[in-house]
Amino acid sequence: MGRSPCCEKAHTNKGAWTKEEDQRLIAYIKSHGEGCWRSLPKAAGLLRCGKSCRLRWINYLRPDLKRGNFTEEEDELIIKLHALLGNKWSLIAGRLPGRTDNEIKNYWNTHIKRKLLSQGLDPQTHRPLQGGAAFATPQQQEAPTAIAKPVNSADEGQSCSTNLDEDRFPDLNLDLSISLPCHSPKGSPPSEGLATTAAAAATSRSSYSTQPICLCCHLGFQSSEVCSCQTIPNSHVYRYIRPLEEGQRINYSS
DNA sequence: AAATTTGTCAACCGCCCCTTC
DNA sequence: AGAAGGGGCGGTTGACAAATT
Fold first, then answer.
1. pLDDT tens digits for A185-215?
2. Cβ contact A128:A121 at 8 Å
3. Quick check: keyword Transcription in the entry (predicted)?
């Protein structure tokens, strides 16, 4: 019994994608859209596993990808989001438009981990390593005992914010009970946008709150260019983060 | 210049969750 | 209600490039 394999492995290519395969995949998705990944390879004339096609598209071929080096602002956002969410790369990626979970995961493992270690921080817990007093971000340096507790499976979807956390980490609200507005007119779902879908998914099992929540504000970016919650006329519309324009920087000054 | 080490990142693997029947 | 299928996620691997010896 058991499950059938996701594809016929004997007749599929593996390894690096060729330009021709890329072109085939792009052309197919352009004309048919993203659909059933399982049947896509055959339909597109590709000798690839459907999962492989999906991964290639999402991580490399998608037109809205940002590419290029991570900015300092993105660094800080990743660190803060990781402190909140743990290794939930897809959720973190959802707050960084143009970045993929794979890209962020790689970046974390190759750069940020080392950066945190050099600052005397445990990359997993964000707590100071033995006897260390260093902190990850300039803002965190202002709260030398602040510790962000990563979400674990037990408390995922529940509020993890405490008064103690708020005292320790004034600029980083750890309340993860981000949720859909229960008073949303006609029960309309959160609006479009990359950033909203992940958040909605992350909270789909949690209780509903009555206040719209801006993740930017929660992460201490409320006065930055990134945060546009103040300017959104419809308070029912969730815009956790606005994509940075090319070369745009977050203004930390408050 | 060649050999070795280290770093980076695209891609794969296996598991889990959600949806459908 | 439960099994099966499909998509998505996180961890890991391996190929390649760059740096060092």
1. 333 333 333 333 334 333 333 333 334 445 5
2. yes
3. yes
- Looking at chain A, which residues constitute the CATH 1.10.10.60 domain(s)? 9-61
Distance from residue A152 (CA) to nucleotide B3 (C1'), in Å? Answer: 45
The token pair at A225 is 């260019």
Return the CA Rg of chain A: 20
Instruction: List the A89 CA – C9 C1' distance (angstroms).
Output: 8
From CA A15, how far away is CA A25, in angstroms rounded?
16
Asked whether residue A124's C-beta has any atom of DNA/RNA strand C within 7 A, the reply is no
Encode pLDDT of A160-182 as tens digits: 333 434 444 444 444 444 333 33
pLDDT value at residue A239: 37
Closest C-alpha to A97, from A217, A192, A206? A192
Nearest of A91, A98, A96 to residue A58 by alpha carbon: A98
Q: Which residue approaches B9 most closely, CA to C1'?
A: A106
pLDDT surpassing 60 at residue A23: yes
| Domain with residues A9-61, CATH architecture | Orthogonal Bundle (1.10)
Distance CA(A217)–CA(A186), nearest Å, equals: 27
- Enter the tokens of residue A61: 């071929």
